[in-house]
Predict the 3D structure of the following.
Amino acid sequence: MLLKKSVGMSCIALSMLCVSLLLPACSSRDDSVEPSGMSISVTLRDVHRCSRLSPEIVVESAPQGTRSYQVRLIEYRADGERFLGGGSWEEDGSGIIPEGALTQYYRGPCPAQGQSGKYGFVVAAHGSNTLQPLSVRLYQFTQE
């Protein structure tokens, strides 16, 4: 009986040790490291405020096999996120999604007069034979 109890306690102790060693590895994250690979930049001008004219978006270092981009504009509000439209663009080798290219219900950032709003462009690079994006990047900004 004592041997059974001792073996049972050893198993529990070993399990606890494994969990305590592995758990920090699952939850730790180094936020100082930038993700490698695809990056995006957005050229916002006054003409894009409260407009159906989307800005130029430059995609650099897109994954090999990228055939198109899906772009979404999101507004971050106190009551959640709001989709403001977007669109898709076929990759032509330039890495540039031209100004005005996003036509799928697109409406540019438009905070209330005298206030600022938080927004984000989500750009997903897609290959030809999969629904899973090859890479996704977020460009966040504040519009006044």
